[in-house]
Amino acid sequence: MDDALAEPADLVGALFATTPEVDRAARPVQLAAGTKLVEHHGRKADPTAAVVDSQSVRAASNIPRSTSGWDGGKNVGGRKRHVVVDCLGLVLAVLVTAAIMQDRHAAVPLLTRLRDRYFSIRLVWADSGYAGRLVDWAADKLTLTLQIVKRSDDTTGFVVLPRWWVVERTLSWLVRSRRLARDVETLPAMHESMVLWSMTMLISARLAGRRRDAFLTRPPAPAP
Fold it and tell me: What's the pTM value of the predicted model, to 2 decimals?
């Protein structure tokens, strides 16, 4: 082994310096841990339904302009991570783009990636941002039923939408990871790998029986 890579920090840096190596390292670990957790909940290892959504995050100063942008709807400048999760909220596929990217446009490569890895999935829930020609495209090209979860017109204030809340909860889990609270990765592929590692940490904590607030940094409030 090269003496320059003798320290653990250098080894980690060398691993993350090569994008293909990162993907080969992160995905199998996350997939194995996720399979155990799914089976622990009495579900089949192969998912049949999923939920898709996106989240815009602010970018650090080192992020290249070529891979970042401005999300006018959220007033966030940086990148957007698009995720597909199963019914337990475990990440099945992730794609990181510039924040200016529309959800329905990013869904094309994202759903294609999902279909390549999980052929058992037949139904994907999404919000109104994915409505339109994408629904027909997913049915024709990927044999996927993209069902739009709509908000009722006669409701006011905050309302929990059926099925769609699962992916919203996953996005809140990811923000708890310090590395994902703000985009500091030079390459979008590195950000995608960090999402998988963060999900692996969460799954491992659940399998080990740790409490649900295991990732909260502040200590619990003392008993009265």
Answer: 0.78
- Of 44, 21, 23, which Cα lies nearest the Cα of 34? 44
Q: Residue 4 in contact with residue 10, Cβ under 8 Å?
A: yes
Pair type for strands 49-58 and 123-126: parallel
Cβ atoms within 10 A of the Cβ of 106, count? 20
Q: Who has greater pLDDT, 149 or 8?
A: 149
Weakest mean pLDDT among 80-89, 143-152, 153-162: 153-162
Q: Are 90 and 203 in contact (CB under 8 A)?
A: yes
Indicate the range of 82-86, 159-163, 204-208 predicted with least confidence: 159-163
Task: Give residue 143's pLDDT.
Answer: 94
CB proximity list for 65: less than 8 A, separation 6 or greater: none
Which residues make Cβ contacts (< 8 Å) with residue 208, sequence separation at least 6? Answer: none
| Dihedral sign, Cα of residue 164, residue 170, residue 174, residue 175 | positive
DSSP 20-73: HHHHHHHHHHHHHHHHHHHHHTT--SS-SEEEEEEEEEEBPTTS-GGG-EEETT
pLDDT at 165: 84
CB 207 within 8 A of CB 37: yes
- Using CA atoms, how far residue 93 sits from 85, 113, 196, in Å, is 7, 7, 9
Element (H, E) at 180: helix 178-181
Specify the pLDDT at position 104: 93
In terms of Cβ atoms closer than 10 Å to its own Cβ (0-12, 13-18, 19+), residue 147 is middle
